[in-house]
Write a structure and sequence with these properties.
single chain; mainly alpha; 2 strands; about 60% helix
Length: about 140
């Protein structure tokens, strides 16, 4: 079953692909939807947090992580619980070679990440794993 998303440039709904089973599918889907942040948000929202290590298996491309962080910043902070975002960030940090991906982040991208962690700490229940997770993300 496909979810539908209305794009600003069209009055007819576009289907949102089902959750990906691997990184190739996720990256292809994100490329198709990258100009439509609302659709990208709805696509990412349907992925269970614990599925990310299985989807990415060996590595997470820096541009994919950055696109995801921007969507989290634009939509998750407004529409989701902090605990969901925390679960997603924890799961992403378990992808193999994650630390290599984080090394390529610019200071502007790290600022987005810092905003996400600040929001988690303000909005969510105290979680003792947050400081360690921030270190994994290079903050």
């Amino acid at each position: 079953m496909y979810l539908l998303c209305f794009r600003a440039s069209s009055s007819s709904p576009e289907p949102i692909p089902p959750p990906p089973i691997n990184s190739f599918q996720l990256e292809a889907d994100l490329r198709k939807m990258s100009r439509y942040p609302q659709c990208t948000y709805r696509y990412l929202k349907q992925i269970r947090p614990e599925a990310y290590p299985q989807i990415f298996q060996n590595s997470l491309e820096p541009d994919v992580l950055i696109l995801m962080l921007k969507i989290f910043h634009s939509f998750y902070m407004q529409h989701e619980e902090a605990s969901l975002l925390l679960a997603v960030l924890k799961s992403l940090s378990r992808v193999k070679r994650f630390n290599m991906t984080v090394m390529f982040m610019s200071s502007a991208e790290k600022k987005i990440l810092q905003d996400l962690f600040d929001w988690i700490q303000r909005a969510g229940p105290e979680d003792p794993s947050v400081p360690d997770l921030q270190k994994k993300y290079g903050l």
